[in-house]
């Protein structure tokens, strides 16, 4: 038997490796090596390790991996420029950024070629027209006292452009021959065909990607060589992995091990079981128990052959499930429809569509601010005040039967995010390439981020915006190109921007955005609305006044302006507490400082001008004020 080494890890010296293996063999740390030879030549590396009889090569190789640099781990920082900003990216995103860069480069190249061809065909077209009217052209040249007069006469009589007229004046006499005319006609036909092809490539992204693939295949054919490294998927310690094969918790062999059958030396009750397997389990084919196992973490481990090793009860401390979670509730397979409810106190829970739409369902004092139709196996996106985005796995959201009041959203996120504040939660739209996320900070900076940046969230989350001067995220919303973005401050100033590439160019996650609105002292942003030009927005004041404004009545502004004062207060102490979209028959929930709750149909607020102070929508006590306004609740479909 022999082990033959034909390649080495990055930056590993062959001579040092051979010396290390020889030292281990001589010192007795590695047994079973009979001979060690270096047979490397100009064709490649070849180190031969001859083994003694009865030596297991797999065990020896495992020991060599552990004791020598034959196997080596090293970190790689994938740092690349994206939109002019240096960013660290995972391998997949790095490749995607490269493809996006190649697509952009190809687009610019085709645009340049199209511009060159259009300029050339413009001149050729002028020459051909001059040849068609050669007698009149010669007559103008004979009669003109100078070139400027001839040029002006060409433009007046034949409608030539400046460039065409100059080209005709500079045309040599050989252009008048029949052969030159044929060459010009052939060139005109070729340019016309080329322009049509370039316009097709620039107007149809599928055709552009086909051209990109063809170019990449050509590069591969010219410069490609055999791959020397392999990318393999190896589960690492501490990472989550699926337990395979699936474990049926109702039919597990629970025979206790001899060690588990012995009584504890410190226990006085020798009849108490020291292993959970010694106690009969209730058979339940479908329990709501996760099949995800964190290696080296849980007290119970699932082996690769499907068997389960249970730890003694005395060892199960922080890893045990809450008592409520141990109810025998049937598991929900992936694809099962559910409704996710988000509450005003920051909690979240899930329930079945039947429970959600039940006529006899009783509601407590909680305010449901948002509902989402989803399914088991899906996830939602959570944006936090620090500007980070995380995945909220729907299956991790507690069922209403187990946690009637739900759990805090942050409790379902990684530990690093559990002290943060949730700004928004949403499901990603299907047309990610056409949607943008609007991010608005407390200090008035705004950013238009492609929604595709949220498509690949990791467990550690990703930062969606770079803050300046101790800023924080305040509001988020989705917007299409051309949508109207409306901002409001507590003093009643309102600013309207249009979501387009001129005013708000799309930027990457590392960008800080632009100043959308100047925030004055003793005021703050209170709302962000995304609407059409004819849609209304709702303004609510702290003293219980409200009115609606049509978006088109708000002046369209440039980023960084002050905005327009659009609310006349009844008293000097009143302020705006919220701005939100106001579609017909929407219901808005109001909460006061005295913890009273009111519902407002947006149709009850008058549609008024900027000089109008609004109408009182709720009667408040002397010291009571509107504290919060919650957006319309989205109803789930049955």
TrEMBL record:
Q: Where is the composition biased (Low complexity)?
A: 254-274
- Is this entry keyworded Kinase? no
According to the UniProt record, what class of enzyme is this? isomerase
| SMART domains referenced in this protein's UniProt entry, alphabetically | TOP4c (SM00434)
Gene Ontology MF, one? ATP binding
Describe the location of the Topo IIA-type catalytic domain by residue ranges. 1-247
Where is coiled-coil annotated?
181-229
EC number(s) stated in the UniProt entry for this protein: 5.6.2.2
Q: Does the keyword RNA-binding apply?
A: no
Name by which UniProt lists this protein: DNA topoisomerase (ATP-hydrolyzing)
Organism listed in the record: Romeriopsis navalis LEGE 11480
């Amino acid at each position: 038997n022999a082990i033959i080494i034909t390649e080495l890890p990055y930056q590993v010296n062959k001579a040092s490796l051979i010396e290390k293996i020889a030292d281990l063999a001589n010192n007795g740390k590695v047994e079973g090596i009979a001979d060690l030879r270096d047979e490397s030549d100009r064709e490649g590396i070849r180190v031969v390790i001859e083994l003694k009889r009865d030596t297991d090569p797999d065990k020896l190789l495992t020991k060599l991996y552990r004791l020598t640099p034959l196997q080596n781990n090293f970190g790689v920082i994938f740092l690349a420029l994206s939109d002019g900003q240096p960013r660290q990216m995972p391998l997949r995103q790095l490749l995607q950024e490269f493809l996006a860069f190649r697509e952009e480069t190809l687009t610019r190249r085709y645009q340049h070629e199209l511009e060159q061809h259009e300029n050339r065909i413009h001149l050729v077209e002028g020459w051909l027209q001059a040849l068609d009217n050669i007698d009149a052209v010669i007559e103008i040249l004979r009669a003109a006292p100078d070139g400027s007069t001839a040029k002006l006469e060409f433009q007046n009589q034949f409608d030539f452009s400046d460039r065409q007229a100059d080209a005709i004046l500079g045309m040599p006499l050989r252009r008048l021959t029949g052969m030159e005319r044929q060459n010009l006609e052939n060139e005109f036909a070729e340019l016309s065909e080329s322009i049509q092809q370039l316009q097709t490539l620039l107007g149809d992204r599928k055709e552009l990607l086909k051209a990109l693939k063809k170019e990449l295949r050509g590069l591969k054919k010219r410069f490609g060589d055999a791959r020397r490294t392999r990318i393999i998927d190896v589960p690492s310690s501490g990472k989550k992995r699926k337990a395979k094969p699936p474990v049926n918790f109702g039919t597990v062999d629970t025979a206790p091990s001899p060690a588990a059958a012995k009584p504890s030396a410190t226990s006085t009750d020798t009849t108490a079981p020291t292993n959970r397997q010694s106690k009969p389990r209730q058979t339940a084919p479908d329990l709501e128990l996760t099949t995800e196992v964190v290696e080296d973490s849980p007290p119970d481990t699932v082996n690769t052959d499907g068997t389960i090793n249970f730890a003694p009860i005395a060892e199960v401390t922080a890893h045990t499930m809450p008592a409520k979670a141990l109810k025998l509730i049937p598991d929900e397979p992936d694809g099962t429809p559910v409704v996710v409810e988000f509450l005003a106190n920051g909690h979240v829970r899930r329930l079945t569509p039947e429970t959600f739409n039940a006529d006899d369902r009783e509601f407590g004092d909680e305010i449901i601010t948002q509902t989402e139709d989803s399914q088991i196996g899906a996830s939602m996106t959570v944006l936090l005040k620090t500007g980070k985005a995380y995945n909220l796995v729907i299956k991790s959201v507690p069922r209403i039967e187990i946690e009637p009041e739900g759990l805090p959203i942050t409790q379902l996120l990684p530990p690093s995010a559990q002290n943060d504040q949730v700004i928004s939660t949403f499901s990603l739209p299907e047309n990610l390439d056409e949607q943008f996320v609007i991010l608005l900070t407390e200090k008035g900076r705004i950013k238009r981020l492609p929604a595709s940046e949220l498509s690949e969230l990791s467990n550690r989350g990703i930062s969606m915006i770079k803050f300046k001067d101790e800023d924080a995220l305040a509001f988020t919303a989705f917007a299409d190109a051309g949508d109207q973005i409306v901002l409001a401050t507590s003093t009643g100033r309102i600013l309207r921007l249009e979501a387009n590439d001129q005013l708000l160019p799309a930027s990457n996650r590392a960008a800080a955005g632009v100043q959308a609105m100047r925030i004055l002292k003793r005021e703050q942003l209170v709302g962000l609305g995304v609407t059409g030009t004819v849609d209304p927005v709702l303004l609510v004041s702290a003293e219980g006044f409200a009115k609606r404004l049509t978006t088109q009545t708000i002046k369209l502004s440039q980023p960084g302006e002050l905005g327009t004062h659009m609310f006349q207060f009844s008293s000097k102490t009143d302020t705006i507490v919220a701005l939100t979209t106001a579609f017909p028959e929407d219901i808005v929930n109001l909460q006061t400082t005295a913890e009273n709750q009111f519902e407002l149909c947006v149709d009850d607020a008058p549609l008024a001008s900027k000089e109008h102070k609004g109408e009182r929508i709720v009667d408040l006590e002397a010291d009571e004020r509107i504290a919060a306004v919650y957006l319309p609740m989205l109803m789930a479909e049955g």
